[in-house]
Amino acid sequence: MDSTQQDNVELTTYGNTRTLLVERFDRQYDHARDIVRRMYVIDGCQATSQNYSR
Fold first, then answer.
1. What string of DSSP letters covers 1-54?
2. How far apart are CA 21 and CA 13, in angstroms?
3. How far apart are CA 4 and CA 41, in angstroms?
C-alpha cells in the first residue's frame, strides 16, 4: 500500500446498530467476469518468518 492511498471507511447504521464499514484491501472486483477476486497479500510476519503470537 502506498502512503497516498486513502482508505474507504464509512460509519453507518444497520437497524439500531452503529457500524464501521471498511472496504477490504485484499479483494478486487473483476467487471469482465462479474466476480470478486482475492489478492494474495503477505503480511510482515509471513515475510520475516515470525510467529504472529509473540
1. --TTPPP-EEEEEETTEEEEEE--SSEEEETTTTEEEEPP---HHHHTT--TT-
2. 9
3. 19
Kindly report, residue by residue over 21-31, the tens digit of the pLDDT.
988 888 889 99
pLDDT tens digits along 11-23: 999 999 999 998 8
C-alpha cell at 49: 518468518
- Distance from CA of residue 9 to its chain's centroid? 11
Copy the grid coordinates of residue 22. Answer: 471498511
Identify any residues that bridge with 28 across adjacent strands, giving them in sequence order.
37
Q: Supply the pTM of this predicted model.
A: 0.41
